[in-house]
Amino acid sequence: MGRNGGFDYRQVKNLCDNLSKLENEESAFAESCAKELAARLLALAIRRTPKDTGTLKRGWTTQQSGSGSEGLKTHNAKQYADTMKVHHYGDTYVIEVINPIEYASYVEYGHRTRDHQGWVPGKFMMTISEKEIQAAAPRILEKKLKKWLEGCLNAK
Fold first, then answer.
1. Could you report the per-residue pLDDT of 44-84, keeping only the tens digit for each?
2. In the chain, what is the greatest distance between 2 CA atoms, to the nearest angstrom?
3. Residue 107 is part of which domain span?
4. Residues 64, 84: contact at Cβ < 8 Å?
């Protein structure tokens, strides 16, 4: 055999460069995953909120990096997701999805009737949506990870 058996060192160098790039972009990828899951959760909760509550349906929001929660009304979902504030605690990424409307918890979990003689059952908008996202998260994240790895490893 002559001359390295036809081995091309440029490919190994390219792979090393791509792997080091992966390490540098790891945090950005994790934040991107958190934002996508939070955006999906927000969409599910909004869709599940009863229409007759009006203000409650418009109240769903997250903490924003920029100014206020007006982003949901003025931007598309992708742009809104990009404004979400991500908290980083160790190896955990957290985005708070909230509804600050005063009576949100009563609609979520249920409440007594005005005359205190009966019970209005809860709608569990967030509870059910959260369970759906938890069930779908592995599939969503696996697809996103595969796409990200392909993009990073195939980059020149």
1. 999 999 988 778 988 998 877 544 444 444 446 677 878 88
2. 93
3. 10-153
4. yes
